[in-house]
Specification:
- It is built from 2 helices and 2 strands, in the order ββαα.
- It has a two-stranded antiparallel ribbon with strand order 1-2.
- The radius of gyration is 17 Å and the shape is elongated.
- A hairpin with a 5-residue loop joins strand 1 and strand 2.
- Helix 1 runs antiparallel to helix 2.
- 47% of the residues lie in helices and 10% in strands.
- With 116 residues, it is mainly alpha-helical.
């Protein structure tokens, strides 16, 4: 394995919808039926719901010709966060589907970069 390649976690490890500030993954060894697994399911659902709500609000703000640069920058940063969360959920769920494999990208899915 080369220096830049990360070893894939074993299938029984679940990528949690939260992570460390230094981009380290939070993984849970689980059968999928414990308290933390259920909490992670609820967190994923909340993240996806917030992303949907944000997308609706983004459409309205982008349609407003009087929207300020600050409002648009704030919107862009929230959209980056929502996309980060959605990709992390997709990566987590994809890891649990047999034969699907792990998310792509140089460092996998789930990196957060905001230009605040």
């Amino acid at each position: 394995m080369s220096e830049n390649e990360e070893e894939s976690p074993s299938p029984e490890l679940r990528l949690l919808p939260w992570g460390e500030k230094n981009e380290k993954q939070s993984l849970l060894s689980t059968d999928g039926d414990g308290y933390v697994s259920r909490f992670a399911d609820d967190m994923e659902a909340a993240q996806l719901d917030m992303g949907t709500t944000l997308l609706d609000r983004a459409g309205a703000l982008l349609g407003d010709a009087d929207a300020s640069a600050g409002e648009l920058r704030y919107l862009a940063n929230r959209l980056v966060e929502a996309l980060h969360d959605a990709l992390r959920v997709a990566d987590s769920r994809g890891r649990r589907v047999p034969g699907l494999g792990v998310g792509g990208g140089e460092k996998g899915v789930g990196r957060l970069v905001a230009a605040e």
